Each structure stands twice: as C-alpha cells, then as structure tokens.
C-alpha cells in the first residue's frame, strides 16, 4: 500500500474587478469628484501604489489605487495629478489598509498621502503565523480565492496604461478590506491584536529606510575590486552613472550594469578602444553595450579623475560601522556576550514556536546584538528597556524580550574560554 499524495488546493481565480475597471483619474476635476466619493464611503480604505522600479530613476508612484465601501475603486494617475491632497483630506481620519506598507508609504507621501491609522495585511499575516505572506497567498488563506499576478513587474510609467494592467491594479485593492477583517479576527483569537496595533501605529511614522553611508559600496561585485584606487573608480563611476540616470529618469542599471561598472573599475581603460574592448562591453551579437558606447566619454573621464588623485584622497578599503561585529566572532572577542546572545536566541526561538510567529518579528536581530554587545556594560531591566525603546522596539517587544535578557545577564553561563 502506497501513501496517497494530496492534490494541491485549487482556488477560484479572482480575475476581474466585480464592478469593472474604472476610468483613470487624470484631471483635477476628476480628482475632486474622487475625493468627494471617498469621503461619502464607509469603513476603511484599501490603498496600493504601482512604481516603475527597474525602469525609472527612484521609486515614485505611477498609479495609486484606492477602494472604499460605498465609493468603489478609483485608479489615480499621480503624474497627471501630482498633488493628491484632496484625497488626503477626504480619508485622513480613516484607517488605511495596505499590503507591505513600507514599500508604498514613501511614494504615497510624495504625492501628499499620509495615514493617521493603518492596517498592514502583510505584517499582520506574519504576526498571525502564516507561512506565506504575499498578497495572493494571504487572499487564498483567508478568502479561499487566488489573485492574478501576471503584471507585477511591468513598467508602470508607460502611458496610456494598457487595460489588462489596470484590471490587475484594481484587483490589488478589490478584497483587501475583507482580508483585513478576517485577519483582524484571527489576530484577536490568537491574542496578538495588541501587538499588531502597536506595529501598525509605528508604521504611520515610517518615511523610508535610513540613508546609507557610501551607497556606492553596495555595488554588486565589489568583492572583485583589487585595491583602493579601483575602489575610488567604483565610486566615481557610480556617481557618474547616478547623475546620468537621474537626468534621463531611468534605472541606473539600465545605464550601466554593475558587472560592467566593476570591470571598468578594475581594468581602468584609458581610450575608447580599450573601453569597448572589454569582454562585457560587447553583446553576444558583437554589438557594443548601449550604455558604454553612448556615455564612453563620461566613463573615461571618471577613470581619468581617479588616476590624478593623491593616495591620501582615495576612499578607505572599508568603513567602520557603529554596529556590533558579526556574531560569528563574538566568542573570540567577548565570550560572555556570545554566551548571552546564544541564551537569548534560544529563548526567542522557544517563544516564537509557542506563539507561531517569526523570530525576527519579536525583536529586530540588530537591536538584540546592540544591547548585548560588550558584556562590561551593566544591564538591568530599566537600562535594557530604555535602550530598546531608543532603538525603536515596540512596548510589546520590550515586555517580551527584557526578562530574557535579564535572565541571560544574571545567569552563570558557560563560555567557550
């Protein structure tokens, strides 16, 4: 007798908006009417935004979708209507429902949309312990239907937007409020509603990830760079590419791929012939890479500038960080701190399993490392709580984790010494 393999569950497809695809709002008059309709609706508003990542420079919104009961779905073109303050005024005091809010909040703020209350269905799903938290998976879990996602990576800056794309965009907010209601009931049943409320409240002040020091150091392939002068060439080429991309309003990777940028930095070509002779500068069909050929003077000038730099002006090979060292070296550098980190991690893993949620949602790993690093620092409950608060941990996280850290600090833990 053989074990039967369970058939994968097949869900009905949510293929088109129930009310059809609305016309795109692209005039001030239509925007005013939309704001009035939204103000007359009931309950939370579902909101989403489409960007042109990988096609355009930056992450501005090229379409904003909003749906509210009694108002219907509205597709707004923020390029034609760059100031959405009439919509903000209409829904400022209403709960906004978004999926993966941190992706959309910065670009929504650029057009004047900022929530005072919100519900993030992706973050809520993590807290609820769902194994998959993409929008389609969450809709399947709570509503028993699947969502068409075939246009998720298209160029939303294209105008006019094709009708199938608009249908896809409208579907992203079609059932978001129903998901919110089912998920909220699940969180309440699991005793996690207060945790979720604190997490959602923290998101209302989210403005985007912190600016990175020396973002050019994150160029893919930096590990291949040979010396400090080559590092300087990466910096100059990266800054040159960024200027060109911003001027052309295109993705930097479309101007010059990272792999080719790194190759130029390592080889330091001095002439157009040397530049175009690089292996990566020519396609399989023997044609020069468009970005190399079109902007060859810019790349060669960036290389020339670095060639005339004094050694003292070259960037350092590495930049010191204020973050603790990687945990893998803690045992050698501070065995006591390493033992405490292991103990708290074990406690967090147990708590996560008992409450069916990801460990990283109990506390950001970097926050834990910052508190525990340097075992010479005195750590009592008040100090730990204050430091976690300063780092941005929510009250529920502090309440859960502080006793674990106190126990680890007060315990006589074995070390690897």
TrEMBL record:
Q: Which GO terms describe its biological process?
A: nucleobase-containing compound metabolic process
Q: Which residues form the HRDC domain?
A: 227-313
Query: Mind telling me which SUPFAM superfamilies this protein's record contains?
Result: HRDC-like, Ribonuclease H-like
Which SMART domains does the entry mention?
35EXOc, HRDC
Listed CDD domains = RNaseD_exo
Coiled coil located at which positions? none
* InterPro entries named in the record: 3'-5'_exonuclease_dom (IPR002562), Exo_C (IPR041605), HRDC-like_sf (IPR010997), HRDC_dom (IPR002121), HRDC_dom_sf (IPR044876), RNase_D-like (IPR051086), RNaseH-like_sf (IPR012337), RNaseH_sf (IPR036397)
Question: What is the recorded name of this protein?
Answer: Ribonuclease D
């Amino acid at each position: 007798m053989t074990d039967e393999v369970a058939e994968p569950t097949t869900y009905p497809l949510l293929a088109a908006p129930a009310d059809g695809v609305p016309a795109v709002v692209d005039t001030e008059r239509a925007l005013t009417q939309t704001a009035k309709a939204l103000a007359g609706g009931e309950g939370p508003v579902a909101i989403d935004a489409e960007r042109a990542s990988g096609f355009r420079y930056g992450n501005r919104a090229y379409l904003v979708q909003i749906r509210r009961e009694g108002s219907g779905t509205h597709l707004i073109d923020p390029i034609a209507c760059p100031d959405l303050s009439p919509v903000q005024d209409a829904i400022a005091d209403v709960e906004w429902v978004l999926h993966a809010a941190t992706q959309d909040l910065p670009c929504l703020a650029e057009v004047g949309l900022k929530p005072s209350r919100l519900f993030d269905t992706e973050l809520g799903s993590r807290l609820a312990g769902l194994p998959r938290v993409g929008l389609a998976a969450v809709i399947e879990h709570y509503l028993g239907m699947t969502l068409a996602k075939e246009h998720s990576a298209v160029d939303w800056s294209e105008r006019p937007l094709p009708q199938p794309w608009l249908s896809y965009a409208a579907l992203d907010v079609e059932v978001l409020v129903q998901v919110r209601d089912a998920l909220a009931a699940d969180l309440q049943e699991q005793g996690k509603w207060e945790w979720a409320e604190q997490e959602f409240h923290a998101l209302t002040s989210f403005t985007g990830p912190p600016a990175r020091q020396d973002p050019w150091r994150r160029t893919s392939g930096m590990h291949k760079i040979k010396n400090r002068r080559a590092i300087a060439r990466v910096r100059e080429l990266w800054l040159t590419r960024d200027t060109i991309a911003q001027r052309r309003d295109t993705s930097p990777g479309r101007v010059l791929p990272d792999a080719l940028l790194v190759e130029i930095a390592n080889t330091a070509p001095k002439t157009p012939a040397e530049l175009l002779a690089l292996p990566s500068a020519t396609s399989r069909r023997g044609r020069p890479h468009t970005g190399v050929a079109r902007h060859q003077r810019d790349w060669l000038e960036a290389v020339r500038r670095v060639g005339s730099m004094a050694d003292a002006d070259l960037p350092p090979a590495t930049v010191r960080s204020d973050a603790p060292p990687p945990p893998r070296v803690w045992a050698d550098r501070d065995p006591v701190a390493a033992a405490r980190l292991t103990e708290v991690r074990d406690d967090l893993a147990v708590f996560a399993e008992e409450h069916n949620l990801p460990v990283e949602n109990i506390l950001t790993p970097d926050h834990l490392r910052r508190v525990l690093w340097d075992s010479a620092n005195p750590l009592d409950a008040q100090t730990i709580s204050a430091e976690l608060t300063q780092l941005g941990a929510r009250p529920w996280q502090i309440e859960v984790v502080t006793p674990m850290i106190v126990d680890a600090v007060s315990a006589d833990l074995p070390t690897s010494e």
